[in-house]
Amino acid sequence: MIRLGINVDHVATLRNARGEAYPDPVRAAELALQHGADGITAHLREDRRHIRDEDVKQLRALPAPLNFEMAVTDEMVAIACDLKPHACCLVPERRAELTTEGGLDVIGLRDHLAPHITRLLQAGIRVSLFIDPEPEAIRTAAALGAPVIELHTGAYAAGKAGELERLHQAARIAGEVGLELHAGHGLTYENVTPITKLPHLKELNIGHFLIGEAIFVGLGPSVRRMKDLLS
């Protein structure tokens, strides 16, 4: 069974639009877990545009794994080592972007990443690197000692030709070098099934589509339908 992580960032986006205390991303996380989610993902951005520090503290207290998405900065690594979530997913981050636009440049940033990955691992945190489906990036991730990679599926979700085969090749390489494989970005009911066929896939992290679908059908049914598709 492929695990399903629910990203609750955009519940916080809606809350912050009015500066109110609702809707509460922690309540959304609790509801998602009640309806079959296997874990919760939240991205604490440098500018705190959606998830806030208090949110991640409350999410960490839930009886489920927290996947803490974060930029590779001294501030975020310190927060993660104090928080000690189940996992940290290291992602690229630009203030001007609407959403994460691509994978982490693990090759160009190798020397920068290495000490931060070591520090997180020593704190007992499972480290995941969010990367594009590039063979050399996957091999570099393994060399850096990160036990998990999450493949960026955004180009596939946008309909780019040949992207599904690239993802399959990347998944095979991940298996060969002993990495646990996750994937996510832009996945919907309509495009997720081919991704579930990737070899060695253990987990998908999905947020924006399911939060949007919840407006029409409710969060519980939106999560349950996605969970059914993964099975």
TrEMBL record:
It catalyses: 3-amino-2-oxopropyl phosphate + 1-deoxy-D-xylulose 5-phosphate = pyridoxine 5'-phosphate + phosphate + 2 H2O + H(+). Keywords: Cytoplasm, Pyridoxine biosynthesis, Transferase. The record marks E150 as: Transition state stabilizer. NCBIfam families: pdxJ (TIGR00559), PRK05265.1-2 (NF003624), PRK05265.1-3 (NF003625), PRK05265.1-5 (NF003627). Belongs to the PNP synthase family. Homooctamer; tetramer of dimers. This is Pyridoxine 5'-phosphate synthase.
